[in-house]
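[audit] Reproducing an earlier prediction to check determinism. Same input, same settings, fresh worker. If the tokens differ from the archived copy the diff job will pick it up downstream; this log only records the rerun itself.
[audit] input (477 residues):
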Amino acid sequence: MSSKIQLHELGDFLELPLNAVLATYLPDGEALLSPVWFEWRDGSFHIITYKDVKYRNLKRDPRASILVFENGGINRGIEVRGEVQLDTGNIDEILQRIVKRYLRAEDRDRYAQLLEGVELAHIRLEPGKLRVWDHADDEMYPVGGEQDVKIMKAIRVHKYGGPDELKYERAPRPVPQAGEVLVRVLASGVNPVDWKMRQGLVQAFFSLQFPYIPGGDLAGIVEEVGPGVTGFQKGQKVYGYTAINGKQGSYAEYTTVPASSLALMPAALSFLDAASIPTGAATAWQGLFDYGKLQAGQRVLVLGAAGGVGSFVVQLAHLKGAYVLATASSENQDYVRSLGADEVIDYTKVPPEEITGSITDAVDLIFDAVGGKTAEQSVRVLRRGGTLVSAVSQPAPELMEEHGTQGIFFLATITSEILQAIAALIDEGSVQTPRTTVFPLQEVRQAHELSAKAHGGGRIVLQIADEHALSRDVEQE
């Protein structure tokens, strides 16, 4: 048994020293009546809990059993192997020592009251294999490996709502499955879809299981590869996109990523810059080339050119040899021109319905990264047979039909092939990364608030870990 025992209770992971007390409190400050104490003493692992704790055999493995702690329909358990002894001997001394030593002073009296009239049991476990189990959808399932459960710090969302639902807490470290790579995350991009998911605005597109970890874009270091994965090895610097559907996102110290959505980082970039790329670059690439079928010499209008998507659209269209028209605010005019735009329209000087009024020659393709009235009004400068692609909203079919144009709404698929192509362009100096605004992971609420304001100033990135300190850790491993 290690000197630190990591255990799970009611969704909260804690690192417990040799002797510890675990008390769980609800958000309103009320204590749950399920006190459980864990103690490593005299060569045995001790659990002190309610006398009527359930002891359940596991059908899948007759050598193992599970202790299930129930309260209000919530089940949590610890799987044990080896001899289990249940006795109700003298445990007052143990309880007093634990309560006095480990509870905060302001909690001692309140928690001590919970012990009055409660009949407790002392369960002694001889050293053996230990694994934590969780409960969901009326099923118990393991959430960690044998003995120590690996944990990490993460942002989790337990229910739909505002920024306050972003909880900085401990969570189980994921294990890579077939076709996946476990990445030690150093930076995570923040996309508008992140706060929309948190608020429950895109339930039609994403299936979530609470609690879930938000985030998709990431940059980090390969920690482990799952079965069947080739082309990646521990220690490599990578960037990519993790599948948000389900529970596991990138706002965490570790995440699993499909190998098909991962690539080696551009050599010259920091992790913060690399994390700003995947969704924006892949959206621009697929919108221009896969859906828009952009060709050299064509005219393309980019709505929202200074943002995390639009900045890539301008650069890729310019590299393709297109004539690029773009919309941007007054302060972003020079920036968008530096990306390769031939004409830049200041959308702050005119109403949305007049933004495209200065365009005299029709365009072949419109890339919409803003939506709303601007996108609707822009259709009148699109040639008949032209295409409007949008990563924001579905173009109105009747409007497209009226102008003899095609409207396409799409959600990007981030692939290794696109990420590799973008990395090559960045390394050769043909493409630059978006401007970034960086927040530490603990300030994720502020990051979401800024993203929801549609600030149009590039990308927002969460710093999960200091890359210089972490680089030293990696070198020592």
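[audit] rerun output stored. Observation attached for the diff report: The two ends are 23 Å apart (CA to CA).
[audit] end
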